[in-house]
């Protein structure tokens, strides 16, 4: 059995009772917290544009991620080894999307018009790579999470440059850092589960990663 197969359980044990930043958005006791309900009014035009495009891409990315795992589960869900692993990663992506939907409303972000495309493309990518085999499915995860990890890193740098002291920005940065760490954990799990043994791994990674980068740029604008 690969060493990271139970990574999610290990993480739960090591974090103990510590609340993750995103839990604030699922805590009913914080429904009236200004840090979770309001958006900065003192951003420069460039900062507002940066925030809008970042959260629009993040929401679209989480939609696509959910459908990638949905597609993989449709093919590999009954596999006793990788089925539970894919399901665990999917559950994290469901949580990510729930939080991103709330952030979209909080910061009055226009959702991308490509949401339906993200669903169809995500499911198709997940199912197609799963049909190629377990290793190809993991290679898909590796490629996607590599791009998303880099994208979240860029967003953290942008948020660090904002001049506003609005209380929503520190928690937003913490949430993005949390989600970045989740995505990089998915990447590590994919590698530990032999993603790099997939047929034509380099080509598959290039195609999937390149597609993700194009999708990011399109969602920024549309």
TrEMBL record:
Cofactor binding mode and count: Binds 2 iron ions per subunit.
UniProt-listed Enzyme Commission number(s): 1.14.99.60
Principal location: mitochondrion
Co-factor(s): Fe cation
Mitochondrion keyword on record: yes
Compartments it resides in: Mitochondrion inner membrane
UniProt keyword terms in alphabetical order: Iron, Membrane, Metal-binding, Mitochondrion, Mitochondrion inner membrane, Monooxygenase, Oxidoreductase, Ubiquinone biosynthesis
Alphabetical list of HAMAP family matching this protein: COQ7
Protein family: Belongs to the COQ7 family.
Protein's name in the database: 5-demethoxyubiquinone hydroxylase, mitochondrial
Source organism of this protein record: Galerina marginata (strain CBS 339.88)
